[in-house]
């Protein structure tokens, strides 16, 4: 039986034979978005393919007023009902087949804070101390991650000091999964719920070593790197268990700055792949689906990524001096995982003509139909210059043509 977690209880979906029958029918109007996603990820669909965009949080940040009627500072607010209204507005304007959800501030923080907006300024107020902090709107396009900073972790003791491993029950009791619970209660029966998680390698580089520190430590202090990765793996495992408990269906695993342009294949095998395999295995054990997103040039390590046994694989579009041909990727994957499309977020979605977008969508649908396990997606987040109407056009086009 194919099963999934919903509202903290094990719910049984359709059997594999039933899903295969639906796949053969190509277009089954009785299948909702969640069922289409799960079928595409398991036995495959013959038509009516699911369609998504990655990194919905980035899309919201850059297109806020065009996607929701809520104020820009909603996600700084302790009011989770307002957070949920953002999801409602987004689905009304961009009707894709999944919903992203993640962790929120804990209950005790939410109980003692409020947002105060007046005369064009917005403040986060601690209602106990009445201390105010002015909130600044995130810039369109975001900010750069500092890669040249001094490493936070310099020793094994620093690893234990700075990396907390909070067990799943404590995470749930803290209220950090409350928003995910609300999303599951509202949409979990008919939309695929996905949370984003950085892999241990990416977390270590991004938050604890920085790029230079990671590159240096891989060569000079590999045991320190391993200790940090093991600690981050333990933390990620608890988070996965918490997500499964509250009804999340899948985990988008972001693996960044570990491509052929940054580290050797030997270093990838030693410091990246074992931890990613373990995460993917744990996601499956918990009844969720893994969507593995190794960024960058993966030409020499794609087969290894597939051997990690993810449910789904998603790759960037060709850019920055490397090429990722989705047809060639499909030949290598060969139905061993559900393939996510990699429509060019700049050259096609942002800058392409209507005809060019239709041609590329049809090409990718045709490639995906060879093995059936396919979800139409983008290779990168939607750009700030791409209108919301264009994103909706892309989604409608996929549904019409598949």
Short description, anyone?
The chain is an alpha/beta fold and 402 residues long. The protein has helices at 16-25, 33-42, 56-62, 64-67, 80-93, 107-111, 156-162, 168-174, 178-187, 200-220, 222-246, 265-271, 273-285, 302-307, 326-333, 345-350, 354-368, 388-401, and strands spanning 3-6, 9-12, 98-100, 113-118, 121-126, 132-134, 192-198, 250-255, 289-294, 312-313, 338-340, 374-375.
Characterization of the model:
By secondary structure, the protein is α/β, with parallel strands linked by helices. The chain has helices at 16-25, 33-42, 56-62, 64-67, 80-93, 107-111, 156-162, 168-174, 178-187, 200-220, 222-246, 265-271, 273-285, 302-307, 326-333, 345-350, 354-368, 388-401; strands at 3-6, 9-12, 98-100, 113-118, 121-126, 132-134, 192-198, 250-255, 289-294, 312-313, 338-340, 374-375. The protein has a single domain (3-107, 140-401), classed as TIM Barrel, CATH 3.20.20. Strands 3-7-8-9-10-11-12 form a 7-stranded parallel beta sheet. Helix 8 packs across helix 11 and helix 10 (200-220) packs antiparallel against helix 11. It is globular, with a radius of gyration of 21 Å. The model is unreliable at 1-27 (pLDDT under 50).
């Amino acid at each position: 039986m194919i099963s999934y977690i919903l509202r903290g209880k094990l719910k049984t979906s359709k059997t594999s034979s039933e899903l295969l029958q639906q796949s053969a029918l190509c277009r089954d109007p009785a299948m909702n978005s969640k069922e289409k996603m799960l079928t595409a990820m398991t036995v495959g669909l013959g038509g009516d393919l699911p369609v998504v965009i990655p990194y919905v949080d980035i899309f919201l940040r850059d297109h806020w007023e065009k996607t929701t009627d809520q104020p820009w500072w909603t996600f700084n607010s302790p009011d989770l009902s307002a957070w949920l209204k953002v999801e409602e507005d987004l689905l009304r304007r961009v009707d894709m087949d999944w919903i992203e959800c993640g962790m929120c501030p804990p209950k005790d923080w939410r109980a003692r804070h409020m947002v105060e907006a007046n005369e064009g300024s917005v403040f986060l107020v601690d209602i106990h101390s009445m201390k105010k902090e002015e909130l600044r709107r995130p810039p369109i396009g975001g900010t750069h991650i500092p890669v040249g900073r001094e490493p936070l972790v310099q020793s094994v003791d620093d690893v234990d000091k700075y990396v907390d491993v909070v067990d799943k029950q404590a995470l749930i009791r803290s209220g950090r999964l409350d928003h995910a619970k609300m999303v599951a209660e509202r949409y979990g029966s008919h939309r695929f719920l996905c949370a984003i998680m950085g892999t241990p390698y990416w977390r270590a580089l991004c938050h604890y070593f920085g790029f230079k520190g990671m590159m240096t430590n891989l060569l000079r202090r590999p045991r320190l790197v391993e200790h940090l990765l093991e600690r981050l793996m333990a933390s990620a495992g608890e988070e996965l268990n918490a997500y499964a408990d509250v009804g999340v269906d899948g985990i988008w695993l972001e693996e960044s700055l570990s491509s052929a342009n940054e580290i050797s294949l030997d270093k990838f095998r030693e410091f990246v792949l074992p931890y990613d395999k373990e995460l993917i295995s744990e996601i499956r054990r918990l009844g969720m689906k893994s969507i593995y997103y190794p960024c960058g040039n993966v030409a020499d390590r794609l087969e290894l990524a597939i051997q990690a046994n993810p449910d789904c694989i998603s790759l960037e579009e060709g850019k920055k001096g490397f090429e990722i041909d989705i047809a060639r990727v499909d030949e290598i994957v060969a139905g061993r995982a559900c393939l996510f499309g990699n429509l060019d977020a700049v050259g096609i979605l942002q800058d392409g003509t209507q005809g060019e977008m239709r041609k590329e969508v049809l090409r990718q649908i045709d490639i995906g139909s060879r093995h059936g396990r396919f979800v139409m997606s983008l290779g990168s987040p939607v750009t700030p210059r791409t209108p919301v109407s264009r994103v909706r056009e892309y989604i409608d086009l996929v549904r019409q043509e598949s």
